[in-house]
Design brief:
This protein is α+β, with helices and mostly antiparallel strands and 342 residues long. The protein has 2 domains: 8-95, Phosphorylase Kinase, domain 1, CATH 3.30.200.20; 102-311, Transferase(Phosphotransferase) domain 1 (Transferase(Phosphotransferase), domain 1), CATH 1.10.510. The protein contains 10 helices and 10 strands. The strands form 3 sheets. The chain has a 6-stranded antiparallel sheet with strand order 4-5-3-2-1-10. The chain has a two-stranded antiparallel sheet with strand order 6-9. It has a two-stranded antiparallel sheet with strand order 7-8. Belongs to the protein kinase superfamily. ATP binds at residue 41. InterPro entries: Kinase-like_dom_sf, Prot_kinase_dom, Protein_kinase_ATP_BS, Ser/Thr_kinase_AS.
Length: 342
Amino acid sequence: KLRTDAKVREVYKIGKTLGTGGFAVVKLATERATGGEYAVKIMSLPERGRSVGDNENSRDDIFKEIDILVGLNHPNVIYLKEYFEENNRVYLITELLTGGELLDAVLQRGSYNEADARDCFVQLLRGIEYLHANKITHRDLKLENLLLQRPANENDIPSVKVADFGLAKKMKESQMQTICGTPQYVAPEVILGTPGLIYGPAVDLWSAGVVLFILLGGYPPFYDENEPALFAQIRRGAFSFDDPVWDSVSDKGKELIRRLLEVDPKGRLTAAQALQHDWFTGGMEEDKLPDLSTTRAKLRRKESSHHFRVRAPLSPFPLSPFGSALHLEPLPSNGCHRLPHK
């Protein structure tokens, strides 16, 4: 994937700026040979051997994360086509995502029912299944990291893409120790605080369970302004379906959530097992499903009050090159392009 046979501007015409961040700029890139449009993320590289500041990444850190993305090719994972290294800069050529965040598409739909949530969630599970098959744990799955290939319309939600690989890890014997993630989505085994405790890819399925809870209920399963209290809820798996909003959600949907928000990672469903759950395989009479209007109303209230965005990630190291926020200008489609970032 590293191109050494040509300069980036020989292969691509670099166009307008789509977004900027602390250590990167994202621009439109048009392939000269085909006219195909991509995004190029341009980052400065520290000189080899130079020590970096607290908020910077070393050259090795940057290339470790690029290495995670380089071999990935799946409809539900953001695609890195190739990259160039020139004059102490790296140019990442990725697919151009114009649809914005999944949550925004759900809020903009004319109607929304359990089948719509299922169609979104199955794509997340397929992406997780693919990553885990390739020995990669994402470690920061959340609604903000689920992006759309193109803008949604009244009738469909297009391809959902897993993005933001700033905390992703290539697994060695499926064991990791670093405390990281986003508090409301982090798995209990990550925050037990036991020295030497190891965890595995099951943390991504817990986060997926949180996503599904929000998609169906409209609010997070675990929430407290006090972070220690929030973590205590998570460690206990203390959530419920007592809110009346769950009266419109099927028992199968709620049962899948329970199987994903299982405190013991050994009892938690894998992505492959979740895809075989009755919620997906049992069929739904879509014309008889109630509209989840209360769910969407709750989503709007929580979004406007920042319940989904209130807390900074538990980053174990300085912001990664895919981790610093990008402030993006809207594309003509009224969507936005997002690259892997935190």
